[in-house]
Amino acid sequence: MRIRTRLWFFLVALLLTACTGLPEGVAPVQPFELNRYAGTWYEIARLDHSFERGLSRVSAQYSVRDDGRVRVLNRGFDAASGEWREAEGVAQFSGDSQTAHLEVSFFGPFYSTYVVFAMPEAYQLAYVAGYNRDYLWLLSRTPTVSEEVKRQFIERIDGLGFNVNEIVWVEQDSALE
After folding, report:
1. With b meaning 16 or more CB within 10 Å and e meaning fewer, what string describes 147-170?
2. Do the beta carbons of residue 45 and residue 170 sit within 8 Å?
3. Which domains does the chain have, with CATH numbers?
């Protein structure tokens, strides 16, 4: 019985930490300043997932809470329903606060990696990955970016082994508000 209990705790711990690692070759930005990162970011591109499928005008707002963690508010327009969808979560640093490797949770005790691995224009553009190469975002402080910014993003992520053929370019039409 003791061995079974220990095995169960080990498996639960493994599951809780399995989504908080980093993809091989992807390194978080250092030094990182959370207060400069806070604010509104627009989703320019992503690898698609069920929780964002069909959404346009996607944005994320990050604000520092009193306890040092980060409030995350994701918002997107669902054209099929004609309604806005929101998800609120919390993020915390995976290690030290100077390293852009955070863990974010939208579902209680379950956390997943949020790593800012490039900021080609300091705190104006951000390349963000999850714990593996299935999760990827290009974020911007503005709803649109130049074709050159898009080209540089594709070049960088292709070199890191992300599937550039699966990138979704997010519509940021302000008429949807």
Report:
1. eebeebbeebbeebebebeebbeb
2. yes
3. 2-176 (2.40.128.20)
Q: Give dist(CA 9, CA 55) in Å, integer.
A: 38
Tally Cβ neighbours within 10 Å of residue 24: 9
Q: Compute the distance between CA of residue 130 and CA of residue 122 in angstroms, rounded to an integer.
A: 20
Cβ(58)–Cβ(85) under 8 Å?
no
Query: Residue 2 burial (CB < 10 Å; 0-12/13-18/19+)?
Result: exposed
Residue 33: helix, strand or coil by DSSP?
Answer: coil
* Contact (Cβ atoms closer than 8 angstroms) between residue 77 and residue 59: no
| pTM score, whole prediction | 0.86
According to DSSP, the β-strands at 39-47 and 55-64 are: antiparallel
Cα 17 to Cα 7, 11, 99, 104, 116, distances in angstroms:
15, 10, 18, 12, 19
Query: Residue written as tokens 């499928």?
Result: 53
Tokens of 149: 């910014």
Residue 134 or 108, more confident: 134
User: What is the reported pLDDT for 177?
Assistant: 46
